[in-house]
Amino acid sequence: MVQKVLSGIDDDALRVSIVWTAALRNDTYEESIRSRELIPDPRVRHYWDGANALGALAAPVLGTKMQMAWDVYFAYGRGAKWEGSPAPPKPANWLHQKISEDPKRRMDEATLGAMLRDVLK
Length: 121
Description:
121 residues; globular
């Protein structure tokens, strides 16, 4: 689904960082390497975080009940910078795939595409 959304956005300014984590038992570095093939867009950079460090740092930024952010999609506007803190900056917008979180932020193809187009304006 993510690749389909990205292929529908013709803007070279779009930059995507995908951080693969070990959130579930079958989430391994080897599986993250295989999963990269699902999203071959040249605007995408893939990273592995086996310690789930980013998820632990990102969860409080969102102001939700999540203790670890995973299956979340952050969107930052042009010129956004991550400086001075190990935690990521608060995103301009974000979506998730969690049943227990805000249903208005639930990610699907249409909402992800709209969110990315919005921050590219």
